[in-house]
Fold this protein.
Amino acid sequence: MAPAPQPLEGKFQGPMAGYLPSGQEGGPRMNTISLAVLIDFIIQRTYHDLTVLAELLPRKTDMERKIEIYNFSARTRQLFIRLIALVKWANSVSKVDKSANIMSFLDKQNMLFVETADMLARMSRETLIRARLPNFHIPAAVEVLTTGTFNRLPTCIRERIVPPDPITPAEKKQTLLRLNQVIQHRLVTGTLLPQMREFKIKNGRVTFEVKHEFNVSLTVMGDGNNVPWRLLDIDILVEDKETGDGKALVHQLQVNYIHQLIQSRLVENPNALSEVYNCLHYFCQSLQLEVLYTQTLRLSYERLDDNINVEEYVPGVKITVSYWRELTSKDPKSELGYRLTVQSDPNEIGRPLAVVHVPSLGAKESAEVADRAVRSDHLSMERLIVYTVYIRSVSRLNDLKLEFQSFLKEVDFNLQGTPAILTVPVLTPCLRAEQVHITIDTHTGMLKCHVPKHLDCPIMSEMQACLNGDRSKLQQIMSELRFWITHRRCEKTLQHLPAATTETLPFLTLPDNPLMQPGRHKIYVKLHRHPNVIIVVQLKEKPNMPNEMEYTFHLGFVAYQTTETDVTAEEAQNTRLVSSSNPPPHPPIVSAEVPKVYTKLLRLIEFDTFVATHGPGTDVDELPPHKRKSTGDLIGPPTKQQKTIYPAYFIPELAHVIAMCDEKIPFLNLAQELARREITHSGLQVEANATSLVLKILSLPMPGPPQIEQKQQNQTSTSVPTIEKAVWNDLMKRLLSISVRSQMNKSNQIRNWGVEFVFFSTPLQSTHQKEQGNRRTVYLTYEQANHDFVKTVDDLLRDWSKIVYLYTLVFNFSEHYKNKRLNLTEVVSVKSYNYMNLLLGYGPKKEVTCNIYWCAQSNGFRLIYVGGISAVNAHSMMRDQLASHLNRQHNLTQVVQILHETYNPLSSIAKLPIIPLLGIPRPQVPILSFCILPQSPCLIRLAYQAIYCLEIRMRSGRLVSIRDGAYSRFYSNLIDEFTPIQGLKGFLLKHVDENAVYRGRSQSEDDNPPSPMGMEDNYSGPGSVSGAGTGGSSPFTSGGSMRGPQSPRDSGLRFPAPHTPPSSSNPHTPASPHPSAGGGGGGSGGPGSNQSHPNFSLTSPPAHHLPHPSPGGLMPSSPLNPQPSPHMVHSPGPNTLYMQGHQDSPFTAMSPANTNWPNSPSMPRPSPRPGQSPEHKPSGSTGANVGTSSAMSRVPSNRSWAGATPTLLTHEALETLCRSSPHPNKDITGPEISPLERFLGCVFMRRMLQRHIQGDESITTLNSNEPGMVLFKVDGLQFQVMLNQLHMESLHLKAQHLPTPPTPDGKQPFQLSADDLLVLEQFFDLRVVSPPYRPNAMTAFCRVLSCPGQVLKDFVQIMRLDLKPELMAEQLKWTLQFCMRVPPSAAIIPIGTPGIYICKLKILFFLQITRIPYKGKEWKDSPTLLLPMVYDLTSNITQLVERREQVQSPAMNAASALLRRFTEFGVQHGQCSLFPAVLDLLTNLQLPNDVPPPNQVCTYSTNIGPTVGQVVGSSPNPMMHSPMQQMGQMGPSPVGPGYTQMSQNQGPQ
């Protein structure tokens, strides 16, 4: 510790004087003082000085006062300055404290060393000088070490200190045995009390034990008769196990006092043992009474309150306790009350405590009470009171039992339990939980009663009051309780049945029947499923056996009303019906409030108990004692009930009656409704072995169409099949039985009607495994929940009509099916026929199915088509047309033949994509690629992108006819919704199989305009399939009545040939028909009778835009085929470089190499139809005369109206057209699509090109004499676009320079090289008009062509890198793709719009670049960037488009910085900066996290044209592949990285 500070002023004065120990004032202070105490001292000293000054200064002069005040202030100031210094020093006191501790430790060590040295010096100088060792006692040491003892001690020590030797165990045993004999002699010769007869003599003492009081041990000190008894030990046996907490009741000092008292009385006392007993017995009895008194007080205080009370307590004498004090105050008979007294016997002091009862109990019971509670090991007042209360409760309940036996005879009462409970049976039989349990409250003594099963019984309070008071009404109360429990038994019995019980009904006026009067001796049972029916259960007690009940049942019919006159009009009907077929509008409400509807009793019928319980399948259950099961029946016998032992609370009669009524009432309602419809039945019956109830229907009427359905038939042009008498008789012969049963749905617990039709076999054998036997069953299910039996019968008749009408169809079909000459078994297989549905399988493997059934709602047949495992059912699209045909003709054989003949073509058509596409008219508007529009069972319209339409007609002989659907089938006018398909006839003729169709048609027929006679055949529309009664014939079922399909005139025309041609001036002038042609093959039932086409008209307006026929074969001017201009200067010959690599170019097929004129005779070439057999012979030969068109071979006609005439194709050719296949030009990559979609896509792109050229002012349209060719020019360049004539599935571009005069300064104008033109052609073929066909790509390409020459040349260079990126693969780090449409990742303009925008001398275009992999990387890991770039024509600057509000990525920032650097340093004078900037970007763009390859060269050359020319001239095929495929065969698809997904995507582009 730190040393104490020095005194402030010398020594301490005042209160601090003498604080420090004496002797330590000048030395180091080892003691310390608290800073707070020090401050207190200073404050007290200052206060003391002020007080002294205040007392002394008034007596001094002014100068002295000033001097004293100055001295005080100076002294006090110095004191507080020291205090401040001390406080500041205290901040670092920890360090001082540590140093002081160290110093103190060192001082202590030093002091120890000094003291040690001093003591050693003192010992050597003073003590050790006189120190000497004594002489050693050698003999004693030798004796101790050798013998271990020392025998030379003085004798006085042995005599005074060492005790004598004890006696031996044998001597002890002999002495104790002798003492036992002495004690036994003393007891025998002395006087001994009877209470002390139990003793034990052992080890020289006698022990007396008095049970429950004490143990005492005595002995004698000699064998003389005058030697007094010596009291050795006292043990008090009295315990308080309830309130003593396990402690002794007598203190040891008290025991010692008693011990001394008794010992003093034993001296010279002749009856010493009696004196011992008397003293201890009195003490123990007093102690027992004290314990009982303490327990009573504690019991009253803690639990029993005022229910017990200590009436009198005399210590050591007696204690009196009263109980049942509430009963004492209420019962006039108990004037003295109920008390018990525990007391000692005043006459004989040796007797134990006795118990006296008031009122007195028997001697036996009183002694038993005392033995249980007082004379036991467990001394307890509570046990004494409890057992006393139990004895008195049993006595009182026995008296009550005698009263019950007076009016309840032959009833088994039971009195048992603790506390005692008297059980009184109410009914016979009766569960113990239903008996009345009567007991006595142990606290109050009042009687209590309850029924354990019905704790809420309202009668118990009345019965309890009766038991504790006047018992004259006890018998009446027991009767009411009996009825009340019977009501609960009824509720328990019906809890699992669809019924509810009630004791009252809300009658507006009470019925006259006494049974319906208010009372508690009846129960109303409401049936949930039959609201208008109630069951009245009347309860009666048997006269001789009041504990047994009799049940009487009544069936009542009620109605619900709000006033007295509500149901008077329906009363007669309701009394006639068993129950109302409809539920009430509001359910009856029984409550204390005013009900919303009231009940009116219409009729009441009493059940015959014997008849109800004796019938087929019903047994009478005899239940003892005196219990016979009885119930009632309404009409028929009930169902069987098994003999079971029911519980006492279950009433089998009630359950049987309710279940019987609930089950039979619906049958009776249904039978009543059937009788009203005049449908014969056999009535309600019980089936064999009493399994269920059944209602047999003997016959059902022949179905006939209702009047409403007849009106609908007239509106929808469908007729109900006629049921012939032979068909009806055959069906009636096969119908064996009709059974109606009631079933329960296990899932939702709802009853349903189950109707079973049993038939004998079928006229049409099926292949189903379960339909091979002769017994055929049909199961129908109807709901019972709504109680609408009229609807149930209507549904049954509708289902019966389904069976009858389908049987009519099947009966007629079975005759044709069994006819082997028709060979229908090879066409179709009957997979299932169950009288409700007919399932037919057809197709190549018979795996596609058609389900035919009759629909009663639509009053016609319905067809459902399901595909197989390996094939889809394409007839789903023709479902309505085939159903309409079947509902008109009712000929299943024709439908089967149509399904067989049309399966293959429809399966082929179903392969066409029907998904919606984006980017056709507008980027965000979806358009269906193909839309199938069925017209009739054999005629469909196929719309392509809502622009073109094909009309496809299925014919017999595995043929289909296809024509342009834009032309009307009736006249030579166009349909407004569609556009004619130019070149359709030529495309279809490439797929015509001459071996399968007729060869009698000439090429001149294509030059004639279409007419109503030549455009249709003898089958058109859904109404001409069958010729039964209509005059028409089906192409699938007619024999040789059909003429050649290529004939221009057909006898089966819809209209006769016009006698007078229509006028061209008035379109509404009708044609005059030929008088002798009115009854042609068309007839009134021909195709025109059911035609619903929007252009259907009897007039024949001319088509002003269609050319008229010309015998010379010249095509006049039209919007689609303009007249050639005589001033047109062009060279139609193809480019030689392109010809070297593209042998399938359309320009080689158009003209020979040594001529420059179109339509000139060409050299002989292979057939235009690919895959033709060598044996095929062309139908014509090539002539040398240009003007003779008839000498030409079957060259495809490109005239716009040529497609209006049908072209016959085989099913195989249609499959080829519709099935997806690779592109004929292998250089064009992309998703596989069908040839038909490629052809229509090319025609659509050509049409979009024409529309764009007409709307673009920078492009000049040129007239061409080549049909289908688009000719235009742009700034000295002429372009030709036409279809590839070999397969007509791709468009090609031919570009060439026009002769231009020199400029005024004599220089030649700027022109593209031949290689550049070739790149334009290739880019057009591979990137613009390749699948998917998007017009915005064509628009962007045309905008590129409209650019100035230098800019166009740079764009061509970009196209060259896009097509052939491997040209500079060693110099470039990136590959590019020139985007003709805006990719999805561009956020500047909408997606899918044209990728080229020219606005105010600025060109916006998009490039997508991809990093070339290096160092073993793969293409999938290469980054891709989309660069929106702008080229400014005025400033010759190429830069990226940057949006201020968006944060650019690091890659875009790097590209933008590189372009800015190129603009500052890399642009050469007079050179367009577009391509050099792009090339510099591809060469030098470095991403922030990219490491350049060490061997990459950063120099580049802008002249890459000759390389392309050499490569293209040698082999054009490598140009169509991606650089990734050239470098390791691991790159993306050939169209360029990152853009393949967009080209394959048919969605939003």
